[in-house]
Design brief:
- The complex is a heterodimer.
- Chain A is an all-beta fold.
- By secondary structure, chain B is an all-beta fold.
- In chain B, the strands form three sheets. In chain B, strands 2, 5, 6, 10, 11 and 12 form a six-stranded mixed sheet that branches.
- The chains are: A mainly beta, B mainly beta.
- At the A-B interface, strand 5 and strand 10 of A face strand 5, strand 6 and strand 10 of B.
Chain lengths: 113, 113
């Protein structure tokens, strides 16, 4: 089965450090999403791309978060500097046709201490 | 705007009980409707979908029918198993090639042996 691959699976870092999360979408998928999941807020859409171009990043704190797709096989989400409130599970999802739904990765569990 | 409202949890049932998780939506246009499932420690998986009114999506014994007249997409299963314990998300999307998927808040389901 084709899958969305996220690395790392777990990350523990100290407040103020830079964190980079990576996502390899399914080959051929042209839409990539970044979500954050916490117990308090549930699933939040941070940003999404279509054909590598950012379509919407309004859910992302711009002062510290950035999302990019340097090529079609890699999406990155960076936090600099990280804060304890950024602790969450970050999911990447990819898809081809909106009506078909999207495939999610297993997530990166981030803990900022 | 477009939104999804689903039944609050947690829902606890005994094995072999009948399951219904309610989901209603508000949408301008004709979205596709989805149910996703999230097992502990994993990402969301697409469980089933329906792309137009009166369509029935089904998978793994779960079913949901796209009801335009009641703007609903309730998830049902005739006989649940312990392995069905998970969080279930109703979602809508597919308005356009650039649209995102909008998720409900999730319903946690626990099945007692």
């Amino acid at each position: 089965d084709a899958r969305v691959t996220q690395t790392p699976r777990h990350k523990v870092t100290e407040m103020g450090q830079e964190v980079t999360m990576r996502c390899q979408p399914i080959l051929g998928h042209n839409t990539v999403f970044w979500y954050r999941q916490t117990m308090m807020q549930g699933l939040e859409l941070l940003a999404y791309f279509r054909n590598r171009a950012p379509l919407d990043d309004s859910g992302m704190p711009k002062d510290r978060f950035s999302a990019e797709m340097p090529d079609a096989t890699l999406a990155t989400l960076k936090i600099q500097p990280s804060e304890p409130r950024d602790s969450a599970v970050y999911f990447c999802a990819s898809g081809l046709t909106p009506g078909e739904g999207y495939t999610f990765g297993s997530g990166t569990r981030l803990t900022v201490v | 705007g477009n939104s999804v409202t689903q039944m609050e949890g947690p829902v606890t049932l005994s094995e072999e009980a009948f399951l219904t998780i309610n989901c209603t939506y508000t949408a301008t246009g004709y979205p596709s409707l989805f149910w996703y499932v999230q097992y502990p420690g994993e990402g969301l998986q697409l469980l089933l979908k329906a792309t137009k009114a009166d369509d029935k999506g089904s998978n793994k014994g779960f079913e949901a029918t796209y009801r335009k007249e009641t703007t609903s997409f309730h998830l049902e299963k005739g006989s649940v198993q312990v392995s069905d314990s998970a969080v279930y998300f109703c979602a809508l999307g597919g308005f356009s090639s650039a649209s995102k998927i909008i998720f409900g808040s999730g319903t946690r389901l626990s099945i007692r042996p």
